[in-house]
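[stage:ingest] chain + small molecule ((2R)-2,3-dihydroxypropanoic acid)
[stage:ingest] validated
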Amino acid sequence: VQREMSSLPRVYITRQIPPEGLKILSESGQVQFDLWDSDDVPVPRKELLQKVKGVDALLCVLTEKIDAELLDAAGPNLRVLSTMSVGFDHLSLEELKKRSVTSDLLPLVYGVNGEYGTTEIWYGDMGNMVLLRYSCVVLSPSLPPVSMDELASQSDFLTVCCALTPETKDICNKDLFSKMKKTSIFINTSRGGVVHQEDLYEALSSGQIAGAGLDVTVPEPLPTSHPLFTLNNCVILPHIASASYTTRNAMSALAANNLLLGLKGQPMIKELKL
Ligand code: DGY
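[stage:predict] done
[stage:export] tokens:
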């Protein structure tokens, strides 16, 4: 028996996500969805607060702040949140935790596209993928992580892949840069907030480190008048490290599948444990 569209769980998608994810949702026959139909600009907050009213699930990207205001606007039907990102610093974990506990319905579950290491930063999923690409080595998660000091003083390239959390905010600061080799390159593809930008500017302009490659900054986009742009040993990209058709399609498929599993009350492929 074909279910009436109106009885299907409602989903709001905050961006024109790549086709693979939309196909999965459409072909599932499990949900009805509405989306912000633009690839260029994020959905205006006012429109978002309006659109999430009463939805069962939300598929968002990192430009949307998922906070108390948004969760209140969505209301008690919301039970699945899936973000098309590895990072989760746009989600207010405290609010989500509070609501999972108090929800009368299914617990609210959240899907993220992968996992950053947390305290074992250097042996997390993302760190391992970087190593695999550049040196064909995979570190076992059971290996003890090295200290930050050791990492700083021995690395020729220091690549940051951790999530931005209260614990990791500004961890790349003058203390770290001062321990790096003068010939070392600093790379950040995670979140701008893990770097103390003024300290990085100092380290680069004084020759404390040789260079930096940044895909992420605070704010984004970084104003062109920012001092970091005046340096010839700093390359800055506008947060595009994942912007290939293949990767973004895979991310949208994972976000869609996570969402469908969450609605069925099944474990997600990648689930953020609160
Ligand atoms: C992520 O997945 O968190 C990236 O920063 C977005 O491409």
